Each structure stands twice: as structure tokens, then as C-alpha cells.
Amino acid sequence: MDNTLMKVTQLPVIEEHLRSRKEQTEQRVAEAMSLVCTDETLTSVKNIRAEMNREFADAETQRKAIKSAIMEKYDSFESVYRECIADPYKRADADLKAKIDATESEIKSRCEEMLLGYFRELCAVNEIDFLSFGQTGVKVDMASARAKTPKKLMEQIKLKVDGVAQDMKTIGTMGENAPEIMVEYKNNLDLSLAISVVNERHRRAEEEREAGETPHGYSSSARCWSNRRSGPAGRPEARGAGGGRTPHGVVPRDRYARAPAPFEAIPCQQWLSVRMIILRRILP
């Protein structure tokens, strides 16, 4: 098959003609650039510059005419080239590509079906009913799909399923928190994160519960102040002649005798009432 589609015979002639003018053009440019522009020669330099611009414009006009003539021939050639060569090759390439894509897609689909069956089998053995095939991160490539047994992808699936099964066993050892942790684990498949979320939730719930049980303005440590400061008889120890000390200041010792009950025996929910009684007896 002859691969020569077209021979250009005019461009070399044009190029030789241009090269023959190169020396003359370089000399003309050198003379112009050697001119000294002063007050006396300003007009002369301007005239020479204008003359050279006209020469260059004329050369550009000829170049564009030559390009147009060449492109006219080329455009005609390109039209024939597309009809006879380019379009048939492109049609063949598109047809073959579609056939190749369809065949590769079928091969990958068969491989994915086999891997999906293997995945379901592993999940059934490990009693996992929430893990999806997509969560394994397996991407079937042509090299694996064409292999008789895609060992690499099967190992990837087994590693993921075994990891989830081990996490489930670990969750099962976490007592009463296990169901809650399992719910979080199913959302993200991250055991550490699931445990952290549940622990944080419980911590906040405990803080809210303690805040609800503590009387307004007191902390849990204040509620148990009397226990820490009480003597062997269950009464607060006196400090010198001035009497004992409460969260509100120094109280005369004889005032404790009129307390309704030892401080350590008062339930937390009754602390506010006791506090009000003490205040009434202390204040005038």
C-alpha cells in the first residue's frame, strides 16, 4: 500500500526565494539601526522607518496570499483525506472500542459475581448481616478478572470480613454497653470511634443527671460537707470557743443542738429544706 498521500512541490521554491532575500533584508535593517536620531536627523529617521514599514507590509501581504493559496489546496486535500482515510479509521476504532468495552464488562461482571458469592459465604459463616460488598473496597480490574482465581481480591474480602467479625467479638465482651456500641459500629465500621461515641454519650448523660440532683447553687461536694467535717458523734466539730463551721460561716455551738437531725443522716433531696431551717435559726 502506497503511504504517500500528497507531494508538496511549491513550498521549497518559495523558501529558496525568501532565503535569497535574507542578506539584502539584514543589510537594510542594519543600516536603519545604525542611524543616530537627533534634532537634525529626526525627520529623516521617521521617513526611513515609514519606508521600512511599507516594505514589511508589502511582504506580509504576499505571505498571506501565499498562505491562502496553499491552504486552499490543503483544504481540498483534507476533505478528500477525511472521506477516504480518517473517517473509515475512526468508524473502525469506535466499533472495536465498543466491542472491547462490552467484553471486558462481561468478564468483570462474572468476576464480581464470583467474589460476591464468596463475600456472602464469609458473612454467613461469621453471622454478619450488616456489611455490604461495597464496604470491602474491592475494585475489579482486568488483570484480576482474567485470572482463573482472583486471589488478591479474595484475600482483601476475607481480611475485611474477618476484621469485622473480630470487632463484633470484642463488642460482645463489653457488657451492658455492647448493644449501643454495636449500633454505632454498624454506622462507621470503626470500633474505636464507636466506643468513644458511646462513652462520651454516657459521660454527658451522667453530668446531666448529677446536675439535676444537685440543689441550686451547690455542688455535690458541698452536699457532703457535713460528712467530711463531722465528729465521732455525728455532729460537726467545733472550732475553738467560736463554735463550728458550716458552708455559711461560723455557727455557735449551741445552735447544733437544735438541728433536726445529724447532717450525715439527711438525704440529698432534703438538703434544701434543712438549709432553710438552719438559715432561719441563724439569721435574726
Explain the layout of strands and helices.
Elements: H1 11-20, H2 22-33, H3 42-125, H4 142-146, H5 151-172, H6 178-188, H7 191-213, H8 220-223, H9 225-229, E1 244-246, E2 249-251, H10 271-282
Antiparallel strand pairs: 1-2
Helix pairs in contact: 3-5, 6-7
Comma- or semicolon-separated keywords:
single chain, 284 residues, mainly alpha, two-stranded antiparallel ribbon, 10 helices, 2% strand, elongated
Descriptive report:
- The chain has 284 residues and is mainly alpha-helical.
- The model is unreliable at 217-266 (pLDDT under 50).
- Helices cover 66% and strands 2% of the residues.
- The protein has 10 helices and 2 strands; from the N terminus they run H-H-H-H-H-H-H-H-H-E-E-H.
Largest sheet: 2 strands, antiparallel
How many H/I helical runs?
A: 10
Radius of gyration: 49 Å
Number of strands: 2
Question: Brief overview, please?
Answer:
This protein is an all-alpha fold and 284 residues long.
